[in-house]
Amino acid sequence: MPTPIDAQTRPRFLVLDGVDGCGKSTQSERLVKHLKAVTGRGVQHLREPGTTPVGEALRNLLLNADVDLQPEVEVMLFLAARRTLLHDRVEPALARGEWVVCERFHGSTFAYQGIAGGVGGMRTLELCRDLAGSPKPDLELILDLPLPEALGRRGLAGDRIENQGSEYHLHVAEGFRQYLAVEPNARRVDASGDPTAVEARVWQELCRGC
Questions:
Q1: Contacts from 53-62 at CB under 8 Å and sequence distance 24+?
Q2: What are the extents of the domains in the chain?
Q3: Model confidence over 46-61: pLDDT tens digits?
C-alpha cells in the first residue's frame, strides 16, 4: 500500500521526465503545490537545463535553432548545466529540509542524446552518473504518452531539439522505455487523459516510492 506523505516525511529529490508534450511542466506545477500543502515545507521547482545563470546560458545555446552541435557536445553541455544545478540548488535545498521537483534529468540525456543522438545509452548514462551523479534523485517519474498525442499537445516545434524530425522523436520515446529498464529509481506514469487524473497517478506513484 502507498505510504501517505505528510509533514514528517523526509524531503525527497524528485524528477518528472518524458517526451516533449507529455505534461512535465503542468504536472510539476501541480506536484509542487500539492507537496507544499501536505508537508508545510518549502519546495524547489527546477528545470533542467536552466534555473541557474550557467544553466540558463547553456539552455539558450543548446536550444538555439541556428547552432549545430554534435550529440557528444550536447551531452557535455547538458551535464555542465546539471552539475551546476545540483551544486547550486539541489544540495542546498535538501540541506534546508526542502523538497525538490525537477523537470528533466538523466533520463532525457539517455533518451535524446544517448539513443536518438547515437551516443549510446549506457555510455551516456555512465557519463551522467560520473559527472552529475550526486545528489541522486530519489525517484524519477517518466510520464508516458503516445508520441502523436504528445506532439499534438506540444504544438508547433520551436527550438533546435523540437525541430528534429519524427524519426528522431520516435527514437527518443524508445529511449525513455529503455531508461525505465536500466534505472532502478525510474517509474512509468500513464500521462494520458485529464491532467487531474494524471496528477493522481503521479501522487500515487510518489507515495509508493516514499
A1: 54/80, 54/81, 54/84, 55/81, 55/82, 55/84, 55/85, 62/160, 62/161
A2: 13-209
A3: 999 999 999 999 999 9
- At 127-163, the pLDDT tens digits run 999 999 999 999 999 999 998 898 888 766 678 888 8
List 130's β-bridge partners, or say none. none
Alpha-carbon distance of 119 to 75, in angstroms, equals 9
**202: which residues sit within 8 A by CB, 6+ positions away?**
16, 27, 30, 31, 141, 143, 189
pTM, 2 dp: 0.94
CATH number of 13-209: 3.40.50.300
Side-chain half-sphere CA neighbours of 87 within 13 A: 11
